[in-house]
Description:
722 residues, alpha/beta, 11-stranded mixed β-sheet, 7-stranded mixed β-sheet, 30 helices, 37% helix
Amino acid sequence: QSENSDKSSAESDSETEVEQVSVYRKLLATLKTSPESESEEEEDESELEEPGESETEMDSEGSQDTGEGDGGEEDKNGVPEQEQATDTAEQTLGQEQADGADTSCDPSHGVIEEFTDVKHESEFSLETNFMEEESGDCNADKRDSDSSQASSEDPFKQHMDKELEEKEVEKLSTLPKTSSQSKWPRLGQLTFSSTLETHKTLKADKEVDVKQLHLHKPLESTWPKVNKQFLSLVNKPSDPSFTPLQRELFCIMNAYRDLFYPERSALTNGEEIRHAYCLHALNHVLKANAQVLSNNAKRRDQKPGTDRDDYRDQGLTRPKVLMIVPFRECALRIVHIFISLLEVNDKRKIDVSNKKRFKGEFGSDPEEKPPNLKRPEDYEAVFAGNIDDHFRIGVAILQKSMRLYAPFYSSDIIIASPLGMRTIIGAEGEKKRDFDFLSSIEILIIDQADIYLMQNWEHVLHLMKHINLLPLDSHGVDFSRVRMLNLNNWSKYYRQTLLFSALQDPQINSVFNKHCFNYVGQVAVRNVPLSASISHVMVQLPHVFRRLEAENLTSVIDTRFQFFIDKVLPEYRDAIMSHTLIYVPSYFDYVRLRNYFKKEQLNFTHICEYTKKAGVCRARRSFLKGEKQFLLFTERFHFYKRYTIKGIRNLIFYELPTYSHFYSEICNMMVATDSSVDATWTCTVLYSKYDAQKLAAVVGIDRTAQMLQSKKNVHLFVTGEN
């Protein structure tokens, strides 16, 4: 692999660079770790933003960056190895070099040298353990298991024991879904879609009695204690166990419906939501395993020659829950929640194997972060702890013990990043690839989906294509215990998908609409934006929204480029329109614009997520001093760095930002310039009818409706805190 990566790294970054790279090459690029580019630390802004900084200090800092070219940010030796390969490789590869994490000392960041816990295999085996051996009071536990599992009201039993008929499966795979709307007190506007259940209105539970939720022991007693931190923040809590948000979310989760919640915030409700889905996942696993262990005992006590076909209680492979999270810190928090939920009290601690190793690999050193960097609150919340994005870990759970680093085929829960999944699933034609362990996933949780748009969305799509497929190998399964739904290859119709995001986005919507087949139906929260990002712009600034007409969604990219170079750019070529920052959300568009600017020999510089530290210094300084008229600036660089760019007088949003608050953040950078030039400030935004969601988040729902009806350009003047 490294040989291929080195070969690709040697290719020149020419103006007419090839913009198509094989998926295999892109993957190799993500696995390649360059010590040179990885060893860079987050730069101290104080040394960058002083205009009087000496030239020698800049050059010594980036001594390997020879030659400025059109700014020198990425050209020649100042380019990270991945950028030298081809620019499109950067567009789609995972952003481990871009995310600002210092991963040079992390052995798992390159090709994963995976540790798996072999020592505890028999102890955690579902095949060889029995309910009596696992629990202290065998009779009580067995009675509890029998009564609980026999209960026809248990949502777990209802969902997993439902036997679909072939005609129902045919409907699910061919007929369109019917939708209905309802409004809940906390979640707001819900859209319920289903093929089998039509004209059904969902109602929220006003009160939830924990005993009626059919939580498995010990969750009934541990959940209120673990969740206490969030309940204390609620004024006059009507529920002793759940916050209003958790209650409504769990009501949907516990009914095993698919859920899309696009209002997750790392600052406010992120941990509250994480606790709710951890409770649901753990409850599911404990019930499933208790059913298997109970049936093991029944089979053992069964008389020889009797029918043994009544105990179909498992899938083709053991993993039941897949949790996709962006960073190691998220996995650390999930495991801590699991441990808290399993520990009844301080005296009854559960046994967690490999805990020390886990803390070492997934924890973080507080001293690693430079103390003098100031970033927005949301940035600090998202990038807290260990932000390495290449990991995967198997977790096996039996009531009194937890096994971390369990081999995947002996795991109940797999916690991984999209990149961690991508590198084990592999690509077609690769010898070493594996995705059989995804065959019987019953709950898929994708948290913080918006961050994967900033990493590599292709990894998420690749995962969705390989989940719930029939395994290529039997992996030692006892087919007499496998549910018929799995043998019929109907797993995807039973899989529950929980999708949490900070925003509505067409790509995220597409995954929810096209890759979720749950027979119980899908619930999506569809609220209109309450506030417009433009109202948070603090500077007096005319905003011109220029509409481009595209025939269809696929033609938008080319139409936007042509509109920009024909209609917008000519207005900014004059020297009087200096200090123009062009904000570009898509890396593909950035590469295209950069190549065009080079070809036209425009006076510009550029910064992207792969630009080296010294290149960023030079670009920011030359733009501030007016030596460069244009600055091409990628959204992913802003997402991972959040530097203030000084000297902006003219702002062009080549496309509306993915995160609406980035709009006001970028506009407010103008406040950092000389107030005498206020009158010359401009802001131009390109949009099409396909940008309705992003537009509503920036200007508000009412203005969006007017702008989409009218084909004229829209001029808005913001006078600060509107």
